[in-house]
Target: Rhodocoxin reductase
Amino acid sequence: MQQATTLPAIRNPSSPGQDSPWHDVMPLADLADAAPRRMQVSGRSFLVVRQGEQVRAFAATCPHKGAPLEQGTLCAGKLVCPWHKAVFDLNDGSLIEPLALDPLPRYPTRLVDGRIQIQPVALPLAAPVPTGADQGVVIVGAGAAGVTAAVSLREFGFAGRITLIGDETAPPYDRTALTKTVLAEKEEGNRAPPLRPAGFYETHGIDRVVARVTAFDPASRTVELSDGRKLTGDHVVLAPGAAPRMLDVPGHDLPDVFTLRSQADAQAILATRNITDRHVVVCGGSFIGMEAAASLSQAGAKVTVVSATAVPFEKALGHEIGLRLRRLHQEKGVTYIGGHRVTAIAERGGKRQVTLDNGRILLADMVVVGLGVRPATGFVPALATAPDGGIDVDGAMQAAPHVYAVGDIARFVHQGRRMRIEHWRTAQIHGRVAARAIMKQPGRFEEIPWFWTLQFGRKLEYVGYQEPFDRVTIDGDLDAFNFMATQWNGARRVGVITAGRPRETGELVLRRTL
Model:
């Protein structure tokens, strides 16, 4: 990565009264087209991008988690974050798609005698025309989809009332961090990062209500809360997310047996006792279960995973990739018992006695259940009529007149069949689509789903709709976690898994097709 020497500041003679100086950074001829470069100006980092004879400068890191954007993908006037696939418009830095919820700051640039100069004062985005001041939106759920819907409504100019209902007292947080970093004790206070900074909801007029939703009537758009209150909206966005599947065996409700869905769950696991050298049995080889196993192992626990599948993730990622991830866990000290289930949990001398279906008994200090999730739609039986508990929606995420279902619960149409996707980024995109529909702006759910898993510092990314596949071809080094794997159903490409290939994955996200 090349950095320019900061030359003496050049005052801007064309902007009377503006004190901010211009800084010379590099010759235009040294900047290749569509090849972002990170530059240093007055001790700050900027991303400089050339498209033909046009040069723009942006903040060098993604506003979501600080990813280095010079490693991102640039195509057709868009920039994709290399870490979590936020998409920004290179015209003005505006946000196109999450995971970021903020635009990318843009800075003035100019050309003087063939050299690029930057003025390090961010340019404001054009403010939308306020609309809908006499309307109200009620959002059920304060996770990825619900918060994104609320934030997007304000971004798009909605000036009416927004009520965001969640059943956790903590401000909305990044749930993906629970298994990836919180259980590894890598987050301050063992708390997941908040989705929005302190004071955001008050500043933007978003009323947070902490309560459990007990019922919803789609016809009247009335939400009933556990405290007896009833709220009605001109528009209602259903974003309750999912609930963890319980371990239905004797002893599932004993102390030190945990499910993992909320921040409180993660804190309870870590607060129970010192994790170091404690034996933890993880029930389930799901992404939640295996990420939890990796994080707890990194925190010093002795971890055993009990899974019904001999090879983890075989159905989602394929046999060879599943084998490599199982071996990764084993290399790090995790014991993987595949092809078996837990049939009972009992107390024995202060320990948990975990009995498997083959009669084997494991002694553990705690048990963590990671068996997947199901849509949390019990409060709305009129709409949740599908066998899996999901709610059917159209391309604008509408489930009934002025009622939208987004995130884990939404059953949209792909390739002629209904499906749900339990991905964080997909949930956020759903929230933005619903917000656009409320604002009567064009836009339908057309993004290709993407998710990532992080286990022992190894990141895998998946692009696709989780369709059935009959073979997987792998290009690259599976052992070194530097590869691109393609899932095929006959002659049709239905999924791509990558490791160490952020630009290739970004291109797939931008193309919206495999």
Observations:
- The chain has four domains: 23-118, 136-243+374-438, 257-371, 467-511.
- The chain has nine helices and 38 strands.
